[in-house]
Specification:
Length: 264
């Protein structure tokens, strides 16, 4: 039995036209084309006949063109990107902030639900306990640094003692194509994989009172944080997400271990 593994997507940077260049053109079409349409009808009535078809038909086509071009405008804030999809095919990613104009037929995605029920479902999905699908307006993805503060997880350490452990994961989207197409919901993916990596890591170390030169969760926070960051890099790479490094402390990953609840 053979299985086909789909190749990972890769981001392709692209440039689009400035919206300020196309704005006067669209305004001219939306104002001039209706005026031309009215003139063609008035000229026909002056001759007691039908509209001047040589002007009427182009005017109608220009009105349609102006309306279609109107949907090509979009804006991007700093640290924001738009993934451009044309009839189901990935074209590229725009990362430059500002006022832009692109192909009006680029997919716009779906707007995120802002109702109380939708927010509750989205929160449930972000924690890995729901199946809500997160969508983005106009396929926009935030490139800003984000925090994921995990709940305290009850796990067993290397010796089987029950402990509580948590972590603060600082991350950002690095490859927008992977985040959009390789996973169903990259935000939910980050939360689920972060907690899974934390559970796996806790089982590899004793909480305290280790053997000689043994790294423990309590005394070796730096080493454990580094190990967690390496494991998260491996897991989150599939979603185009990377953990952020802290300035001034090399590659240390933000991690915090809670107090042990083990009993003798």
């Amino acid at each position: 039995m053979s299985t086909n593994i789909q190749a990972m997507n890769s981001e392709r940077p692209m440039q689009v036209a400035s919206g300020w260049v196309y704005l006067p053109i669209v305004i001219l079409l939306l104002i001039g084309a209706p005026a031309l349409l009215i003139y063609s009808i008035a000229a026909g009535e002056a001759q007691n006949g039908p509209p001047v078809w040589g002007l009427f038909v182009p005017a109608v086509l220009l009105i349609i063109l102006g309306v279609i071009m109107l949907f090509g405008f979009f804006t991007l804030q700093p640290n924001e990107a738009r993934v451009c999809v044309l009839f189901g095919a990935y074209v590229g990613t725009v990362r430059d902030s500002g006022f832009h104009w692109g192909n009006p037929f680029y997919s716009n995605g779906q707007a995120t639900t802002h109702t109380a029920e939708g927010a509750a479902v989205a929160e449930s999905g972000a924690r890995g306990r729901g199946t809500a699908k997160k969508t983005w307006s106009r396929n926009k993805i935030s490139l800003r640094v984000r925090n994921f503060n995990s709940d305290r997880l009850k796990v067993n350490d290397k010796r089987g003692n029950p402990i509580e452990i948590g972590a603060v994961v600082v991350w950002r989207v690095d490859d927008t194509a992977q985040a959009m197409f390789d996973v169903d919901d990259y935000e939910s993916y980050v939360s689920v994989q972060s907690e899974s990596a934390l559970r796996h890591l806790a089982s590899q170390y004793a909480y305290d009172h280790g053997e000689d030169n043994e790294i423990t969760l309590r005394s070796g926070v730096d080493e454990v944080s580094q190990a967690l960051r390496v494991e998260l890099q491996e897991r989150l790479h599939k979603a185009g997400v990377v953990p952020r490094r802290r300035r001034g402390r090399g590659t240390r990953f933000r991690c915090a271990c809670a107090t042990s609840t083990a009993t003798g």
